[in-house]
Amino acid sequence: MLRFDILTIFPEFFGAVFDYGIVRRARAAAFVEIHAHDLRAWTTDKHRITDDRPFGGGDGMVMKLEPIFAAVEDLTRVGSSDVEGSNSQKRVVLLSPQGRSLTQSFAADLAMNAKQIVLICGRYEGVDERVAAHLVTDEISIGDYVLSGGEPAAVVLIDAVTRLVPGALGSETSAVNESFSDGLLDFPHYTRPPVFREMTVPDVLLEGHHAAIAHWRRRAALLKTKRNRPDLIERAALTEEEKAWLDEN
Ligand code: ADE
Fold first, then answer.
1. Neighbouring C-beta atoms of residue 110, cutoff 10 Å
2. How far apart are CA 234 and CA 243, in angstroms?
3. Ligand 1 mean position, distance from CA 98 (Å)
4. Domain segments of the chain: what residues?
5. How far is the CA of 185 from the centre of ligand 1 (A)?
6. pLDDT surpasses 80 at 207
């Protein structure tokens, strides 16, 4: 069982997002549990304030650190939240555009090794830096763009991790052949009809010659990766023949 605890000032944001598809099934089968907590529950002042003006001046507000520290300590304390396991099985993730990029291998590491993941969703201009420096195990960004808060990023991370929890996908092998598992994008997929408005399906896929299909798929994945994500080609493990072929195509 992997437990996610989301810390947010908008717990209602997560209303139904985890009620569909693989995440829904993984929850129903008790592979994962997902809880959204209102950060204001850990404030101690009358107005339940979670943000304040930045030291040094400037625009915008900064999320205060005391409620965040109190919440994380509460949720990860031994005996609380039903989570057993060593400290290394408890991860505390801050979602922020300043984080390391979320990757398939990071998601797989969490899915295989974590028992509890606390997700801190920042808002406003940012979160007091002492949270990133002294409280979290990982500061993670889901891409080079700025969201208005960490909540959508938490949904993305939970989805990416949950489908890699052993058993959650149903057929254990389905995640093995997909995009990024070998550092390349996935190959193109087709289904019926074979012709639609003169748009055809590659003949090789209709002929049932398995080795030829595997060869076509590998080449199509290479081409698509070169076109859409040349940065991935640089790092992929390619044979000399594949490199030569890509140079010509
Ligand atoms: N919060 C705001 N932007 C974000 C991003 N790109 N990734 C993660 N959290 C964020």
1. 22
2. 10
3. 8
4. 2-162, 195-248
5. 23
6. yes
